[in-house]
Amino acid sequence: MIELTGMNPAELTAWCKEQGLPGFRGKQIFKWIHQGADFEGMTNLPKDLRARLQEMAIAQPVEIIEKRQSRLDDTVKFLFGLRDGNCVEGVLMHYHHGYTLCISTQVGCRMGCTFCASTLDGCVRSLTPGEMLGEILCANRFLEGKDRVHNVVLMGSGEPLDNYDNVMKFLRLLREPDGVSIGLRNVSLSTCGIVPRMYDLAEEDLPVTLSVSLHAPNDEIRRQTMPIAKAYPMEDLLKACRNYIDKTGRRVIFEYALVGGVNCEEKHAVELASRLRGMQCHVNLIPLNVVEERDLRGVNERIVSDFLKTLEKLHISATRRREMGDDIEGACGQLRRKTIMEKKQ
Ligand code: SAH
Fold it and tell me: What is the pLDDT of residues 31-71, one digit of tens each?
């Protein structure tokens, strides 16, 4: 079976010709796939061709196997099923500027951050470009044509820059005129900081917003929670961020999860501010979402607001990330893990 979902119109045209079909079928199939259709629904293709494609190819490689809707807001958490039996998570959030979908880029993750549930069982495999697109197509089908996904954040399970080529191919699909048409300015890519790939990304001419999971004001603290910090010191990481800003003209977002007793004192905010001074950036503060299996503490509201105030006083642009879907296992990797554990019992 061949997955057609990750192909662009030119590749699909070439594939159709290889199959002895007229080239224009490629463009038709591309359009249908991005509308979320399976082969039987591709009504401008001859019936026997639809049946033939059904036998040999895959149009929609992802399906929703579970969904949880928040009672607190409009957030929906999806468990997406892949064809090999694996599953990944996605979260659909309704903001005033439209729907944002948080997608996964790998089944699990091999980065080993101590606060994150996605990495507990390591990385099973990377997602294909078609599977990442498939997550968006699922969410669009869920919205039943009444609305669609406008913004995408690569902040589900997985490290996007550890699946570099597939993620780049996926991003290029988003801006195809006959596709899901999501402008890359509406896409955020979050990385734990794989420095060499950050330099590569700056050269891609893809105007995505780069989010960097910093979570610490210095290497000593960062190494306590993020193994990647042992490979790339913060100085090199911030240099790569400055390069990204220079090359793209876009500000970088720093994610900073506040972990009780680790990185949330005033002196940490002061040190963070001194390292980020003069940089075109924004800090997103996230109160740690406590993961059962990990021995880490969250923080109270007061700690978050004090940290925020210190950063603001030192002229660092910062906000507290809005928490959504808190009642539906909103944090990374938690729903998938829960489902897998329940299955094992
Ligand atoms: N691998 C990428 C993207 C996935 S995680 C990265 O590291 O950036 C998306 C964001 O959620 C990251 O900033 C990550 O550090 C954060 N995160 C993971 N687990 C969390 C938790 N339990 N509480 C708060 N933030 C968490």
Answer: 999 999 999 999 999 999 999 999 999 999 999 999 998 88
Is position 109 annotated as part of the catalytic site? no
- Interval between CA 314 and ligand 1 midpoint (Å): 25
CATH architecture of residue range(s) 2-58: Orthogonal Bundle (1.10)
- The residue behind tokens 């390069």 is 243
**Nearest C-alpha to atom 7 of ligand 1 is from which residue?**
192
Domain boundaries, the chain: 2-58, 62-344
Evaluate: CB of 291 within 6 angstroms of ligand 1.
yes
CA within 13 Å, CB half, 97: 6
On whether the 62-344 domain is CATH 3.90.1170.50, my answer is no
Q: Is 190 in the pocket of ligand 1 (CB under 6 A)?
A: yes
Strand residue runs (E) in 127-208: 149-154, 187-191
Q: Which residue has the higher pLDDT, 211 or 338?
A: 211
Structure tokens at 169: 């191919």
- Say which amino acid occupies 293: E
Name the residue type at position 144.
E
> Is residue 331 in contact with ligand 1, taking CB distance under 6 Å?
yes
Write a three-state SS string for 259-328: CECCCCCHHHHHHHHHHHCCCCEEEEEEECCCCCCCCCECCCHHHHHHHHHHHHHCCCCEEECCCCCCCC
| d(C-alpha 95, C-alpha 30), whole Å | 29
318-320/149-154 β-pairing? unpaired
